[in-house]
Specification:
83 residues; Signal recognition particle alu RNA binding heterodimer, srp9/1; five-stranded mixed sheet; 2 helices; globular
Amino acid sequence: MITGASKVVLYVDDQDRAKDFWTETMNPHSNLMFHCDDLEETYRELSGRGVEFPQPPVEQPWGWWSMFEETDGTRYALGRRGD
């Protein structure tokens, strides 16, 4: 299961401009990455609950990661702790 999130810190001078950037310019990317101890088990568990994964777990040169979407279509990264 998800055990935490990596850092999420966004300081902005203009919230409306930042909102437009993150929701319009960068859409559907996310600046939030969750981590877990067992990525494959977390993937199976969350998929079984109906969570959509446009990117199942894959190994990249930097480690294992996946991507899931919440109900509004915002995507979030999910990585294995230690990677």
